[in-house]
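Revision sheet: structure tokens.
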Amino acid sequence: MGKSVYRKFRWSRVVGLVGLLVSLTSCVSAATGLPEINTGPRELDFGGLKWRIKSSTAPVAPGPNYYSSSPEAVWVDDRGMHLTIGKQGEHWYATEIFTRSRVGYGTYTFTVETDARSYDPAVVAGFFTWDTAPEEFNREIDIEFAAWGAEDGTKFQYVVQPYTSPERIVVFDPKLQGNTTTHRIVWRPDILEFSSFHGRVDPDSPEARNNLMNRWTFAGTPPSEGRVRFRINLWLFQGKEPERPVGMTVNAFSYERWRP
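Predicted:
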């Protein structure tokens, strides 16, 4: 057998073995109901941005929780980006997405459809900036729906971390009028403002003021933009199991870069 023929034969055997291993992995995943092991992060397009999906095979922060990137856990359709908390096999899996590209100063506007009033006390929905560098508390700016384990119902909150300083957090009862809300974060070097509205609205329209739920302007100095990405997650506080699965749909998302 010539060298070139032998190399082709040997390579075909390697390819065949790799294909067999991939097939076996898929079969095992299907049989156990656990998420398939991916060679790289799964990505989805939404709101003019590309989003990566978090995945873990052991409990990790926040929570700690297991995180699933399976198409049954996170997907996009004509209603928007869907995130879930659901049980697969023996574990409950949370979900989290984050922008592949770095973002920063600008205006973030998003509409969310979820029955937050029926959330289990452990369920948290988060919309936030995050920098892996620890400076300025990871430049974390949050809008969150959560009860943090309390039995008095889900509240909404605005946070400029660290949340332990009272002037850096506002917690309020949203007095929801349905399951759909619109939120905006305006972040510039000189201003950091949060606002929330009932329903699906354009915050710039004159009609939006009739739907205003809450607004807060941070009195301190906004964090510098660093190298943040925007993240959205649906997870379980302290990893506590809920009574039932949970779903959340981000109907729309936009990021408008600030130009000095």
